[in-house]
Amino acid sequence: MKNWDIKDLGSDSLFTETIKLAKIGVYELNVVSNEIYWSDVTREITEVPDDFVPSLDNLASFFNEGQYRDMARDAMQEAISKGKSYDLDMEVVTAKGNIKYVRNVGNPKMENGFCVKLFGFLQDITERKQTKVELTKKIQQLNLAEQLSQIGYWEWDILADNIIWSDNLYRIFGLEVGTPIHFERVVEAIHPDDRKTFRENAQEFIDEKRFRKFMHRIIHKDGSVHTVELIGELIMNQHGDVVKMIGTTQDITEHRMSEIKFRGLLDSAPDTMVIVDRKGIIQLINKQAEKMFGYKSSELIDEHVTILVPKRLWDTMEYYAETFFKAPKHTGLPADLDFFVQNKSGFQIPVQITLSPLETSEGLLVSIAVRDITVQKQAAHRIMETNKSLKESAKRLKAQNRQLEEFNQITSHNLRSPVSNLNALLDIYKTEKNSKTKEMIIGKIESVTKHLTWTLDTLVESLLIKKSAQQSLEKSHFDKTLERTKEMLAAEILKTNAVITSDFSEAPTVMYNKIYLESIFINLISNSLKYKAKDRAPEIFVKSRINDGTVQLEFKDNGLGINLKKNGHKLFGFSKVFHRNDDAKGVGLFITKAQVDAMGGKIWANSEEGKGTSFFINL
Amino acid sequence: MKSVNVFVVDDDDIYQFTIGVTLKSIPAVRSTRTFSDGAEALEYIVVHQNDVDELPDIIFLDINMPILDGFQFMEEFIELLPKLNKSIKVYMVSSSMDPKDIKKADRIEEISDYLIKPLNSNDIKEIVAKL
Q1: What does the domain layout of chain B look like in residue ranges?
Q2: pTM higher than 0.90 for the full model?
């Protein structure tokens, strides 16, 4: 060390200490001897071992091949040959292989026009360099962010009326970066319709010392209109006076456009749309909603959606809302739910509801589509009514068909047979010579004619029954009707020793055609008397009851009984007889059924041969 | 010529009279027996099931009768038939032209034909001749 001429540096001086503290390394090249001196700091920076001896031969290893090695060599050569000093920011490779940024300053010492020594400093600037790189990166990112989010930064020195804009704000305004800006220059760029508000806002913020988010439009040179939104803050001096305003301006044209588009879409939707948040608070409604509910948009926004739903359906609504939020997806509520909404005046409207999730920056919203199904409901109701009346007329037609069939059978049996008898008798009459026989045949013809007349009369009667059914409805007391029946059948009852009992306590009266009711009583009771068992006196029991809302009569006897398996299908047919009985004409039950049918009722029987028969009539 | 035994089963006394007159005019008809319903006829057949001469060769069977009508009679008669040592032709005779009745009779094999009242002597002669 003592060999080194470092007096020039003043090794014991304050300077030496200073550069050590400042982490500045020193180096010296003796051009004549090619010897190199490195201070401790230089050794620290280069991370060399204690016994390292720097020389011109090993210097190159401290620089990566290429840019920095060339730079270092060139600088040294120029300094030595031309006496030129240098100041370089460069990369070095330490002995441990680390990359460091250094400031390398070199000063040649000249003697007689020749360089004898090269004297230099080395400063580790790695940290500073990194900070700078990072800062550059950050600025770039910020710029990018500004551009991406279409945000620009501004600062308004109110007193000096000087405005600073970020580069991106120039771009937002469509102005060349760096154009001087002041308040009136900004106003100039604003849409004429928004200028007044802009000025008023600025004044108001200053007066009230509070910034309020607001929007205005700007017009570019090319005439395009952009919407921007401003957020800012006020800066006050120590006296509390507003001196500065800073903030950001964001181009929200696209937001605005998409909001306008969304609104347009919402308003053009055929259905009523109500958009609510997770709590059911109404966020947005469309025009159809205003129409359907009779509320203005402003009356509904921030209200809970229950305002639109009748109280009785709140539980239903909550159930479906919970289900929806468990797995939010497009959900149509069941068509048969019978859901209603209510408008401002409390009128309830049948609706079909569809829920859809709406992901927004403010969280999950639900778009509720409400379709008025009053018309469908009415149509459905009409269809049901039509269906009902169709069913009724089908039933009526069926009944008429059955009557026609019945009538057809009557004509083919009960009218044809006497006619064919007449033909046969006439044939015999023509060929018969014996006048006595002829007279007998005439007698038979007479009896057939009588029978035919009776048959026709009965048929006419049954047709009249069908036609004049519902005419005079009267209140009849069953006990009185039974009394009259007993009077009319007094002789038969006496002859047969019949016992007739009754119980009309459950249904003492009925509204019915009085004549039919009496006819029913007479036919059924006289049947019971007629077809009594040979070995016992008739016991007849008549009861009335209410069955499924209609009055039912039961006539029960202990007579012969009928084999219903065999004869059930023709029990109420015309001229059907089931016993060998001279009186049997087979019209009693036929007429009774015609009367019951005509009144819209029903008659049927239970019977057991040898035990008796029960007739049931739903009046 | 065979002598034929005829049963008429019909509750209509006028018809009984007229067909009686017609049958009497046919020489091949040895005897005629009339019944007012299916049950009476059946009873008679059951009683005389072993007496071939008393059993009919031909039955003119009405449909509409009390107690046992024509079809009900057939049900029982068919069961009885294998026990009878005689071939018996059954003709359903009715004033009814109801297709339902005609079809129903058609389905019963043991019914030879369905005839519509009134029957004249020529119809009956033909039937007797066919035996």
Answers
A1: 4-130
A2: no
